[in-house]
Amino acid sequence: MVKAIVVDDEILAIKRLKRLIGETGKVEVVNSFIHPEEAINFIRDNSIDLAFLDIEMPTVNGIELSEQILNIQSDVKIIFVTAFNQYAVEAFEVNALDYLLKPVSADRLNKTLDRIFDSMDTTKNNTNNKNILGNNENDMKANGNNIEGSKNMPDFHVNCFKKFEIVLNDEKLIKWRTNKAKELITYFIHHGGELISKEQIMDDLWGDFDIEKAATNLYTTMYYVRKMFKNLGLDDLIISSMGNCKIDKSKYKCDAYEFEDFIDKYDRIEKYTNENINKAYEVLKLYKGEYLLDCDYIWAYDKRLEFENKFVEISAKDANFYMDKGNYNLAIEIIRNVIDVAPLREEGHIKLIKIYGVMGKKNEAIKQYQISKKLLKEELDIDLNEKLIKFL
Predict the structure, then answer these.
(1) What is the pLDDT of residue 132?
(2) Contact, 377 vs 350, CB < 8 A?
C-alpha cells in the first residue's frame, strides 16, 4: 500500500485528514507531524510515497518543506493542503500542482489520489519500458555506450545566443506552462551554478509583488520546474541549501558558458598565434546573435552587452591577425559575420570598408560604405564618418 505522511500545525486538521485518507483504502498514513522539522527527521530514515503538507505553518511553510523533502527523497509526490489563500491557489492552478482546499472533502481527496496514482503508474511504466534516452540496455551495449554512466542521464544542451533553447536528446523543449517557469530556469542558467538567495530571486523576478505573493509564486514555480525536469530524467537539477538556490551546471552543456570561458582565457593571451586565433575563430561561431535576444529580461542586459562587446572585439583582433598573414578573404568572412549578427555595431562596418581599401577594392569599399551609411542612419540616426572615403 502507498505510504504517506501528514504535516499540519493544527491537530484537528491532521485527525480529519487522516480519517478521510484511511476511508479511501488506498493510502496508509504512516506518521503525522505538527512540526515540519520532525517530518524531515522522519523521512531521512523512512521511505514514503506521498506527503500531505499544510501551506501555512509558523516556522516553515509547506512549499519550502516540499523542497526539503524532495532533496531527501526525490520520488515523493506532494499534495498541498491549504485554507483559502488567493495567491497560493492561483499559483497552484497555473503550475498544475496538486492541492486540497480546507475543509477537505472526500470526493476531492479521491480525485486527487486518482490523479496521483495515474502519474505514478505512468512513471513506473516509463522506467520499466524505456529510459529517458529511448534506448534499452541491449541497444546501449550494442552501441558501445557505458550503461552505468549514461543510464537515465539525458543529453542536455542549452543555447543562449539569439534564441533561448533547451535541447534534450536532440529535441527542443519549447513548451512552458508559464512564462515565469521559463524565466526561472533561464535565470538559474544565467547565474551558472552560483548560489543565489531566494530574496534576490524574488526581487529580480517578482519585484513588483509584495513579499507574501512573491514567495508563493517563487515556491510554486520552483516546485513545478523541478518536477518538470525530474520527469525528463534530470533529478536534482535545482539545488536548495540554507535559503539559497543554484543549478547543477554539471548536468548540461551551454554555449554561453563555453563562450564565456574562452573570452576569460583570451583576455590573458600575451601573444597571438595561429593556434589561439584559430580557436577564437571556431568559438566565435557560437555567437549566433545577442545573448537571450528573445527574452526581455532586465537582469540579463549587462551580460548581453558584455558578450556583444567581446564578440566584436575578438572578431576585430582575429581579422587583423589574418590580414597580417595576407588572408584577406578570411578576415572579410569574420567581419561580415559581425555585421550579420550585430548589424548596428558601427565598428564592423568601418572595419569591412577598411579591409576592402587595403585590398585595393575601391568599388566594393564604396558600395559597402553606401550600404552601411544607409543602415546606420535609418536605424540609429548616426552618420558614418565621411573620412572613410578619403581613406580609400
Answers:
(1) 33
(2) no
Is CATH 1.10.10.10 the right assignment for the domain spanning 155-251?
yes
Confidence of residue 130 (pLDDT cuts 50, 70, 90): very low
Distance (Å, whole) CA 376 – CA 382: 6
User: Domain coordinates of the chain in residue numbers?
Assistant: 2-129, 155-251, 255-391
- Please tell me whether residue 162 adopts helix, strand or coil conformation: coil
DSSP 184-208: HHHHHHHHTT--EEHHHHHHHHSTT
Higher pLDDT, 216 or 142: 216
pLDDT digits (tens, 9 = 90+) for 351-367: 999 999 999 999 999 99
Q: What is the CATH number of domain 2-129?
A: 3.40.50.2300
Q: Which helix H or strand E contains 370, and what residues bound it?
A: helix 362-380
How much of the chain, in percent, has pLDDT values that exceed 90? 56
The pLDDT of residue 267 is above 50: yes
221-237 burial code (b ≥16 CB/10 A, e <16): bbbbbbbbbbebbbbeb
For 101-110, what is the mean pLDDT? 91
29-65 pLDDT, tens digit each: 999 999 999 999 999 999 999 999 998 888 888 888 8
Choose among 76, 12, 90: nearest CA to 44: 76
Dihedral (CA of 318, 322, 327, 328) sign: positive
pLDDT at 327 over 50: yes
Choose the CATH number for 255-391 among 1.10.10.60, 3.40.50.1000, 1.25.40.10, 3.40.50.300: 1.25.40.10
* AA identity, residue 62: G
Own/partner pairs, 74-77, CB within 8 angstroms, 24+ separation: 74/230, 74/235, 74/236, 75/49, 76/43, 76/48, 76/49, 76/50, 76/51, 77/49, 77/50, 77/51, 77/116, 77/119, 77/120
Query: 335 with 319: CB under 8 angstroms?
Result: yes
pTM of the shown model: 0.78
| CA–CA dist 216, 214 (Å, integer) | 6
